[in-house]
Amino acid sequence: MLEVRGLTVRYGSADVLSNVDLTIGTGEVVTLLGSNGAGKTTLFCVLSGLVRPSAGTVTFMGEDLARMRAGRIVEHGIAQCPEGRKLFPQLSVEKNLMLGGYVHRRDRRAMKQSFESIIALFPALEAKLGAPAGSLSGGQQQMVAIGRALMARPKLLLLDEPSLGLAPLVLQQTLAAVAAINSTGTMVLLAEQNAYAALAIAHRGYVISDGRIVLEGTAAHLRQNDDVRRAFIGA
Amino acid sequence: MTARFGASRVVVAVAIVVGFVLPFFIHNPYYQQVIVDGYITAIAVYGLNVILGYAGQLSLGHAAFYGIGAYIVALLTTRASMPFWPALAIGCVVTGAFGYAVGALSLRTRGNYFAIFTAAIGVMINIVLTNWQWLTGGNIGIVNIPSAGHIGSISFDDAIPKYELVYVFLLVAIAICTAIRHSLFGRTLLALAGNEDLARAVGIDVTGAKRLAFVVATVLAGLAGGLYATYVGFLGPETTQTDVTFNMLLYAIVGGLGSTAGPIVGTLLLSTLSQFLQSFEKYRMLVFGPALILLVIYLPGGITSAVDRFRSRARSHDRFEAPISSATESKVSS
Hints:
The structure holds 2 protein chains of 2 kinds. By secondary structure, chain A is of the alpha/beta class. Chain A has a domain at 2-85 and 155-233: P-loop containing nucleotide triphosphate hydrolases (Rossmann fold, 3-Layer(aba) Sandwich), CATH 3.40.50.300. Chain A has 9 helices and 10 strands. Chain A has helices spanning 40-47, 70-76, 93-100, 108-121, 138-150, 168-183, 195-201, 219-224, 226-233; strands at residues 2-11, 14-24, 29-33, 55-60, 63-64, 78-81, 156-160, 187-192, 204-209, 212-218. In chain A, helix 3 (93-100) packs parallel to helix 5. The longest helix of chain A is centred in the C-terminal third of the chain and has 16 residues, at 168-183. Chain A starts with a strand and ends with a helix. The model of chain A has no long low-confidence stretch (mean pLDDT 91). Chain B is mainly alpha-helical. Chain B has a domain at 36-248. Helices cover 76% and strands 1% of the residues of chain B. A two-stranded antiparallel sheet of chain B has the order 1-2. In chain B, a hairpin with a 2-residue loop joins strand 1 (150-151) and strand 2. The A-B interface holds A 48-50, 70-71, 73-75, 79-80, 82, 86, 88-91, 95, 98-100, 102-103, 105, 148-149, 152 and B 184, 187-188, 190-191, 194-195, 197-205.
């Protein structure tokens, strides 16, 4: 499981994350709700080894991640699907997916199995394997981005705002895919502004504002919370 | 599509054969020398293509690594009387080791910092080679560098075997770059050139991949330098000057960065053009400058990108044409 305690990230004199506590248990989907600039992406960058924390601890399956390099974190079982999908647009869909399996590059059989399971999860990608990833629709790009993260066979999948720019139907399909991924035992941390969508599949959630966790609870509890409804659901 | 793929293979095979038989038809030693000089430089430019065209890291010290390879071969074959082949192998290994050390220090930095770091290394090496007189001969350099000797009855003192020797190494350099381009390593380089943070986030060992690319680039530069030393027979520190690096950069950009044919196309075109415009002396830049500006505006991907563009246009033309012709055929048959 993932355990974040007292996490602080400071850029100069500004605290981007301040004393953040967060846990994800085995088999859970946990959502992190927050508006733009709340600190969601910075937290993801810390969990991926791209940003070093100024204070606090981050442990995953008993190992300290705070000083681990990004590649080692992926090997250890955490893969990120970044905000805005961020594919390698000039490379084909297949090559994008294969790059996701970079940490397991010496185990060709496992790479092949992962690849096949991703095509089974997103059959629409099969016809697009040779196409440049940048030429795909937003929904298809999201599938490639999630598929690329899954190629690393993560125990914890970090999804940063997968709903961004997706049509409602495509978003529904994406969330269904996330639920399917979770049903195989993969933990999911889902950063979202679309609380309605995120809380539909999450077990628990946190609300982050100005780099601080201001609320936490079960998905049902957060759905009923007036502040969450006002801020994120618009009701 | 298969026919087109087959056709491009035939074009490559024909180009390779033409390259082999070329010296039997060009008897003028000056023309031969211009071509061989172009091949040697192209080997170094292929190295630049790996670090800049694939990995997106601008190395401004490439001529220095070319010089290291050249000086090691020159020193080992003249002072230590070592045969050419082991000297060339040592030259490549030492240049690669030097590249590894420089890469280990400089590739932690990004973008402009790496370019500045490598430029500084290039200048330092040039200063050392110019001033370490007892070893390098200073500005006078090293003379009477022996040829590659012979293999069986083939003597590399003769013009045609000399040409073929360089040509074979050029083909090897192209094969190495092509293999890298289509490997997972090549894809990781393209990925990190596109978005380094993203490449890191998906687990790619970005620093390791860049360092390996830099070692390959420097080994190819060292190989080219070693061949230059033995081909020309004398060597001075001007081979490591910054403008040599800039010429190589120019050849790579004009040919098409990151493409397979770009380095050889750019190098042969510009170095040949430069030779034929010698009579204009420094005024030849009046021709080069505007031509380069036009190229950057209209063909930012280099000359080979125009061929790619033409081929993709032809392919899409085929796609639109195919149903029409089949429809016409069915009409005719009915």
